[in-house]
Amino acid sequence: MEVIIQPSHHQLAVIASEIIRDALLKKLNLVLGLATGSTPIGLYKALVRMHKEDGLDFSRVTTFNLDEYVNIPREHPQSYHTFMAKHFFDHVNISVENQHIPQNTAENHETFCARYEEAIERVGGIDIQVLGIGTDGHIGFNEVGSSLASRTRIVTLTESTLVANAIHFGGDVSTVPEMAITMGIGTIMKVKQCLLLACGTSKSEAIAKAIEGPITVMMPASALQMHPNTVVLIDEAAASNLKEVEYYKRSYANKLKLESQ
Ligand code: GLP
Fold first, then answer.
1. Of the residues 9, 143, 227, 235, which is catalytic?
2. For the chain, N or C: smaller number of CB within 10 Å?
3. pLDDT tens figures, 126-138
4. Range of the domain at 168
């Protein structure tokens, strides 16, 4: 794992957007895996700016979102369909037929999930997957106990995730959908590159365990230790429980030096 620690959320968003821009300039039909949550909003803003001001072209890009709540109308203000339209899709030129988000119902979910995996395979797999992390270490909606080989499926959310996400539902835990469809950890492990973003002290424990702790189903993000190309982009607050902060900073400084030679 490459760990990049920056003073602020803004710098993380800039670095992540530059990684995606550079990949897109090399491969016009880039396949992006996308995440929701407050953490990637700055990244989407930066990509929208690159599209509007620098003409970055998304017309051949295909996207697959990690997850969606079940039993929430698509047009609900907190559905991930609404989130993606508001923060990204409405502002760039990704064609609607190339935008994929898990369905928002439990109807025929097994068939849907198998087809979602097939659709990812059909376009040659995901090139870059954007990830956030839950305070309990979940990625997508792969909660504690998720098999590290899991694929896209329907899951029940843990109490801690329901409580964490209640803020988006007016603070009332009982109104947060209890189930979701999520790509599995096995699905995420197959992507070519992961960009895991995290900010703030509330994520510092999960980040320390995910990067420096044992690989375990009790910390789903720890599976990324076995991924060949994961970049972890975190601010100082999210890095505050890591043991090897100085080493990560020195490694990144050396990488920049090498690149500028
Ligand atoms: C939700 C999403 C995750 C996201 C997490 C953290 O649970 N399913 O994909 O990483 O929230 O969100 P935030 O970035 O708002 O802290």
1. 143
2. C
3. 999 999 999 999 9
4. 2-260
